[in-house]
């Protein structure tokens, strides 16, 4: 997977009395997805106030970047089936072209002569054990992001996805969604806070790999 260019800027949200940075504005660029939780400054003084959370104003500021499929202002409902349910349903997904063209049998040996129905069952069994779906779940980013909730993707990694075992489902592609981040500079009565746009990477495809 190519390096993520989304989370480029690392800034300090606040400086404690000793002058050392307390935290970064958002995660550093990384090939490791999903994004790890940010360690936020615990002082509520760095939270947006009620007047800063006007939905109409924030929707206008975010503009066309607002994607209701992946972001929500209020607490959303379930985004996906559980990992176990998703794993059970993998075999019902459409077989990919490369699997439909698969020749059953040893690489240099005779082909297995199977009827269409039996062959399809074998391929579906293989697909059920090797398919890597993206599992989505809603995540609360906290009051310092708007919209506050993001539908984040994960790869099913509870068991090996290869035959023989040894490979696991891992992210291979990602997309970025633009959110607003409440960012404060300075401290105490001298600080200045505002909403700034940030890009948040999301897993969009998983693949069985080493």
Automatic annotation (TrEMBL):
<keyword id="KW-0221">Differentiation</keyword>
<dbReference type="GO" id="GO:0005615">
    <property type="term" value="C:extracellular space"/>
</dbReference>
<feature type="disulfide bond">
    <location>
        <begin position="132"/>
        <end position="169"/>
    </location>
</feature>
<comment type="subunit">
    <text>Homodimer.</text>
</comment>
<feature type="disulfide bond">
    <location>
        <begin position="184"/>
        <end position="193"/>
    </location>
</feature>
<keyword id="KW-1015">Disulfide bond</keyword>
<keyword id="KW-0891">Chondrogenesis</keyword>
<keyword id="KW-0217">Developmental protein</keyword>
<dbReference type="InterPro" id="IPR029034">
    <property type="entry name" value="Cystine-knot_cytokine"/>
</dbReference>
<feature type="signal peptide">
    <location>
        <begin position="1"/>
        <end position="19"/>
    </location>
</feature>
<feature type="compositionally biased region" description="Basic and acidic residues">
    <location>
        <begin position="37"/>
        <end position="51"/>
    </location>
</feature>
<comment type="similarity">
    <text>Belongs to the noggin family.</text>
</comment>
<dbReference type="GO" id="GO:0009953">
    <property type="term" value="P:dorsal/ventral pattern formation"/>
</dbReference>
<feature type="disulfide bond">
    <location>
        <begin position="161"/>
        <end position="208"/>
    </location>
</feature>
<dbReference type="GO" id="GO:0051216">
    <property type="term" value="P:cartilage development"/>
</dbReference>
<dbReference type="GO" id="GO:0045596">
    <property type="term" value="P:negative regulation of cell differentiation"/>
</dbReference>
<dbReference type="GO" id="GO:0030514">
    <property type="term" value="P:negative regulation of BMP signaling pathway"/>
</dbReference>
<dbReference type="GO" id="GO:0001649">
    <property type="term" value="P:osteoblast differentiation"/>
</dbReference>
<feature type="region of interest" description="Disordered">
    <location>
        <begin position="27"/>
        <end position="51"/>
    </location>
</feature>
<keyword id="KW-0732">Signal</keyword>
<feature type="disulfide bond">
    <location>
        <begin position="155"/>
        <end position="206"/>
    </location>
</feature>
<protein>
    <recommendedName>
        <fullName>Noggin</fullName>
    </recommendedName>
</protein>
<keyword id="KW-0964">Secreted</keyword>
<dbReference type="Pfam" id="PF05806">
    <property type="entry name" value="Noggin"/>
</dbReference>
<dbReference type="InterPro" id="IPR008717">
    <property type="entry name" value="Noggin"/>
</dbReference>
């Amino acid at each position: 997977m190519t390096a993520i260019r989304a989370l480029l800027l690392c800034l300090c949200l606040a400086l404690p009395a000793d002058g050392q940075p307390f935290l970064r504005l958002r995660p550093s660029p990384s090939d490791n997805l999903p994004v790890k939780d940010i360690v936020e400054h615990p002082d509520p003084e760095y939270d947006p106030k009620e007047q800063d959370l006007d939905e109409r104003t924030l929707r206008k500021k975010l503009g066309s970047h607002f994607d209701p499929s992946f972001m929500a202002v209020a607490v959303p409902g379930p985004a996906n089936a559980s990992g176990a349910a998703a794993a059970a349903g993998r075999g019902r997904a459409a077989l990919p072209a490369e699997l439909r063209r698969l020749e059953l049998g040893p690489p240099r040996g005779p082909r297995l002569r199977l009827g269409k129905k039996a062959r399809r069952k074998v391929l579906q069994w293989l697909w059920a054990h090797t398919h890597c779906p993206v599992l989505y779940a809603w995540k609360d980013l906290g009051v310092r992001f708007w919209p506050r909730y993001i539908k984040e993707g994960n790869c099913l990694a509870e068991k090996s996805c290869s035959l023989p075992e040894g490979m696991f489902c891992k992210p291979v592609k990602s997309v970025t969604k633009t959110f607003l981040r409440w960012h404060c500079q300075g401290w105490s009565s001298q600080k200045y806070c505002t909403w700034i746009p940030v890009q948040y990477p999301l897993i969009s495809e998983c693949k069985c790999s080493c």
